[in-house]
Amino acid sequence: MVFALGPAARSAGYRLEAFESIGSTNAEALARARAGERGPLWLVTPQQTAGRGRRDRAWISPRGNLAASVVEVIDVAPPVAATLGFAAGLALEQALQAVSVEARLRSPDSTDTVFTLKWPNDVLAGGRKLSGILLEAELVASRQLAVVVGIGVNVVAAPEGTPYPAAALHALGIHVGAEELFGALSEAWARLRAVWDNGRGFGEIRRQWLERASGLGQPVSVRTGGAPLTGRFETIDDTGCLIVVTDDGAKVPVTAGDVYFGAAASSGAT
Ligand code: BTN
Question: Among 35, 119, 158, 185, which has the minimal tally of Cβ within 10 Å of its Cβ?
């Protein structure tokens, strides 16, 4: 199978370039934008050799996993662009639902997995990290922001020794290829990008995201670099901040950090 856009993505004007292997689809997408690319363009590969993760971490994507970035240049403020990550999480969750249904039809003994969304934009499978999303933005001209949304999914293999337990689709009994998943993702992205509508539709994205949120109302610990902030995960606000209610009742908005729930939250996870 080869990587291809779905019909809705094609008719919405998306283009696609696929690579056998590449350092980082996000790095390539930013380089293209600096060189004049305006998008919307998908760059996709089944293997990255220098994948980038959140908070300056590496993202390991061995051959067979999915790494894809979509780039476009738009006139939005950076804080508004940051909310596009929630649309990306939702799009990936919908794509995963669609391909798992197909996989179950092909192989009825495959398992039924629950996908949830973890702030800011991870997708979990059965509570384990299945994918990561890295949003990067850079001004390429006056009021012209290159926005790159990079999505990595553990299809055939999950990394070991990560701060969170990780999952891969094949180990969950969901036997799909990166190509099939990408086709579904390109369709779901075209839908949710249109709902997001340069930030005007973030209210609706937020509503749908909260319906699938992991750990809502539960004890949470957030690491931002210094001492962990502990409390209860109340909601996300209309700018995408995580709202933590601390023991003394204060509502603290968090713009960035690593989130831990459950036992890891109460122990102030490392
Ligand atoms: C995270 O740390 O959770 C985010 C990981 C994002 C990885 C994806 S894979 C496609 C794109 N290219 C990259 O170099 N990173 C993102």
Answer: 35
